Amino acid sequence: QALAGTVLTLLCLQMGSGPEGEEVFRSLKPLLVSVLMDSTASPSARQSCATALGMCCYIAAAEFEDLVSCLSCLESIFSPGGAGEGGSAPTHHGPLHCSALQSWSLLLTICPPSHIKSILDNCWLKLPPLLSSSSVALRILAGETIALVFELAQDVEEDLCHQDTELLCAQLKVLATESNKYRAKMDRRKQRSIFRDILHFLESGEYQEETIRFGLECMYLDSWARQRTYQAFKEVLGSGIHHHLQNNELLREIFGLGPPLVLDAAALKASKVSRFEKHLYNSAAFKARTKARSRVRDKRADVL
């Protein structure tokens, strides 16, 4: 079941948003929902179906009712005490909650403004409790989703600045400076970095732009909505994301990249760095790194 969900996601990604993709999604959506809501199914199968449901709906859903029903289904999984978990706390089944929340937030990016207002009224207070999860991945994803909700609220001119916002910012500050030794060092570092960006956005409205380079092209992630979309496709495609950004017409349309570039042999050859040039670059980088480390070692020796 887990593998079938993954294959369905990739199939829908290849077929695109045309009639064929719509037919595949329409016929298999009930099965995806059934497995996702089945508490006796394996966690890996439910996780795969959560990803497939969100991605296929994003790509191929033709009816607004399909979007609303998928949002509701996914929300029931990650909400504290959700029906999909039989009332369990969000600290359990971290990967399943992550997949459901990631798919839910992906679908938020294509919601019409009228429905965004309804979601803000009904779902906003369900997100902050997820920041207390024992899963670092779920905490980070919850923080990014909160930032996305704030961004969407700005777009529809809704004001979220009420008494709960101050409490939320205080909670985010704790996560942005957390130094608990019982958490892995890499987890602490990643969490602090991301929550600093989230807190900065909530306080100033400024997003830390990121550049994604692939082949001779690049694209800019300049909003939480664009970042969520990119991360969702990257999660599915893995190391193949750059190839698809270059050649997959669906992805290029989603990210506004235009038709795939057609390069002749001469242009391809000119774009490739020769082995000798790579060697020179690596040698220079190695020397610079050695000098920098030597200076640090000298300072440590002086202190000792």
Mind explaining what this structure looks like?
The chain has 304 residues and is mainly alpha-helical. Among the domains are: 1-110; 273-303. The chain has helices at residues 2-15, 19-37, 43-60, 64-78, 94-108, 113-123, 136-155, 163-177, 185-204, 224-237, 241-247, 249-254, 265-271, 275-303, and strands at residues 210-214, 217-221. It has a two-stranded antiparallel ribbon. Helix 3 packs antiparallel against helix 4 and helix 5 (94-108) packs across helix 10 (224-237). The longest helix is centred in the C-terminal third of the chain and has 29 residues, at 275-303.
What are the SSEs and their pairings?
Blueprint: H1 2-15, H2 19-37, H3 43-60, H4 64-78, H5 94-108, H6 113-123, H7 136-155, H8 163-177, H9 185-204, E1 210-214, E2 217-221, H10 224-237, H11 241-247, H12 249-254, H13 265-271, H14 275-303
Helix pairs in contact: 1-2, 1-3, 2-3, 3-4, 3-5, 4-5, 5-7, 5-10, 6-7, 7-9, 8-9
Keywords:
304 residues, mainly alpha, two-stranded antiparallel sheet, 2 strands, globular, IFRD2 regulator, Interferon-rel_develop_reg_N, signal
Low-confidence stretches: 83-91
Number of strands: 2
The protein's oligomeric status is: single chain
- Mean pLDDT equals 83
Sheet having the most strands: 2 strands, antiparallel
Indicate the overall shape: globular
Instruction: List the total number of helices.
Output: 14
Helix content: 55-70%
